[in-house]
Amino acid sequence: QFLSDDVIARANPLNPEFDREAGIESILEGAASGVDSRFADDPMARAGLHRTLGNIFATFRRDDLATTHLERAQALYSEQLGGSAAATLLAAYDLAWAHSLAGQLQAAEQVLQEADRARAGRAEPDLEVEYRRALAYGYWHAGGFRSAEALAFFQNALDLFPAIETAAPRDRGTLTINIADAYLRLGEPLE
Q1: Between residues 11 and 138, which one has the greater pLDDT?
Q2: Which of 17-21, 89-93, 114-118 has the lowest mean pLDDT?
Q3: Rounded to an integer, what distance in angstroms lies between the CA atom of residue 143 and that of residue 101?
Q4: C-alpha 78, offset from chain centre
Q5: What is the mean pLDDT of residues 52-58?
Q6: CA 57 to CA 101: how far, in whole Å?
Q7: From the CB of residue 15, how many other CB atoms can be counted at a distance below 10 Å?
Q8: Is 28 within 8 Å of 56 (Cβ atoms)?
Q9: Which residue in 29, 58, 75, 103 has a CA-CA distance of 20 to 30 Å to 96?
């Protein structure tokens, strides 16, 4: 109902609230404002929606909305599952990535350190967590112009990529571009 009523219905010209000038960002902002009330009895659904919305807003470079949603997702997952749960760590590494995209490198570093402390308490590694961690560190190092470190983390993410079921093919392309960028910044030929 969230998707059909709060997102898709707003894009329907027959809907009285339809706004021809509204773009996807505006539609998502409107839908996002109702997540906590619509899913008040389902904290896991709220957490998942906040994480998804945070990642979408980060790609739109809506930094304030991205970090707000990702912080909320991380907090909800932590309350429900604990700080070292895979879902909590995924939200944390997404938050660090969003901070890095926004140029908020100190905030990103703090989130990375906290997430790494929680990750250390896990009995077994989770490949998706390791993948998101590598991406987050890659973007953090790239934002700080530490190209050699960024390259190592992006290469690690690319190595993990085939094992990640949720990774989209475009993610591989983005990783390859980031690796090429790091090589160029290092003044080295592309491998």
Answers
A1: 138
A2: 17-21
A3: 7
A4: 16
A5: 91
A6: 11
A7: 12
A8: yes
A9: 29
Residue matched to tokens 């993610």 = 171
Q: Over 90: is that where the pLDDT of 110 sits?
A: yes
pTM: 0.87
Res. 170 pLDDT band, cuts 50 70 90: confident
Residue 29, pLDDT above cutoff 60: yes
Counting other chains too, the contacts that 153-157 makes at CB distance below 8 Å and 24 or more residues apart are: 154/178, 154/179, 154/182, 155/179, 156/130, 157/131
CB within 8 Å of 62: residues ≥ 6 apart: 25
Q: Cα angle at 171 between 165 and 177, to 5 degrees?
A: 150
Q: How far is CA 50 from the centre of its chain?
A: 10
Give the Å distances, CA to CA, from 41 to 29, 47, 137.
Answer: 21, 12, 34
| Nearest alpha-carbon partner for 10 in 27, 26, 24, 33 | 27
Q: What is the model's pLDDT at position 3? A: 46
Q: Given the structure tokens 């990103």, which residue do they identify?
A: 108
**Both tokens assigned to 184:** 């160029």
Whole-angstrom Cα distance, residue 100 to residue 90? 15
Which two structure tokens, joined as six digits, stand for 93? 């590494």
CA-CA distance, 39 to 37, in Å (whole number)? 6
Query: Taking the alpha carbons of 185, 103, 154, 53 in that order, is the dihedral positive or negative?
Result: negative
